[in-house]
């Protein structure tokens, strides 16, 4: 496919003010555009390049801690008994009389996680008459406008995919139809049994059930959030703490109804069974002279962590929310976002905006989720 020319990108020079950015800057541009509307793709770190559509990475967990003491000058045993960790089935899990620890393979709990990459593509074309005769509002360069718009749409496609419940899928032929590659989305990573063929998650790395809560009783539109209570939020954070052992800050990427549910934690209304207040009274913590009424929550600080709330229009439902330690995720590119020419056979100039990327979750056990029961 033909290379793009500098003249097709008149907005990329220092003296220009319109048009799309150059190809070399497009990957960074993807991160910047729609940063508020696509917070996950904007905040997730960019990992190393993919070597193949199917790729793997190592994950590990610590052994269980012990409070036993050990006798001085006792030999370390190759076999016998110990309480350190969950040993192989043929080894006793009680200490010997001399409390002698065992030699253990320090990588015995190490395993591999894997995922498939996904190909993303949008395209635009402008007919000769539209390009040369039409003088539209907003500028003459219709092709540049189309590239800029399709670039935003490409990022939105990526945001929706990475936050989806998609399971990993290998490209193949099925009854004459080609099934494309799909990458595993966050909703599928944060699951208690996220198995999927050759990209299955080992059982030792499943997200604990206690870190996944129903967001509501459910309805036809999956918009109920009556189960997002202070107790349930604290319980999820406590469950994550039980795995990671650290009190830290998380990003909560959530739908509009989940955001409303967090804001509603600050007030009670008649018949509000979720917050169980004895008196239905609203208290104002602002100056009486203020003319602006503020009623929003952007940060939730709990006993076991802090949630920085970002509302996102591309989660599977408006009552879905993901608790994400962002540095434990990566977006790995097999093909950085780029613009390609479409050969002009007489129908006009065209461009393809494309990328190939995969979502990496380094350790699913440290994540949490609120979602409808069937999600």
Question: How would you describe the overall organization of this protein?
Answer:
The protein has a single domain, classed as phage-related protein like fold, CATH 3.90.1690. The chain has seven helices and 13 strands. It has helices spanning 26-32, 39-43, 128-132, 142-162, 186-189, 230-244, 256-263, and strands at 54-59, 111-116, 118-126, 172-174, 177-179, 212-214, 248-254, 299-302, 305-311, 321-324, 329-342, 349-361, 368-371. The strands form four sheets. It has a six-stranded mixed β-sheet with strand order 6-13-10-7-9-8. The protein has a three-stranded antiparallel β-sheet with strand order 3-12-11.
Give the topology.
Layout: H1 26-32, H2 39-43, E1 54-59, E2 111-116, E3 118-126, H3 128-132, H4 142-162, E4 172-174, E5 177-179, H5 186-189, E6 212-214, H6 230-244, E7 248-254, H7 256-263, E8 299-302, E9 305-311, E10 321-324, E11 329-342, E12 349-361, E13 368-371
Parallel strand pairs: 6-13, 7-9
Antiparallel strand pairs: 1-2, 3-12, 4-5, 7-10, 8-9, 10-13, 11-12
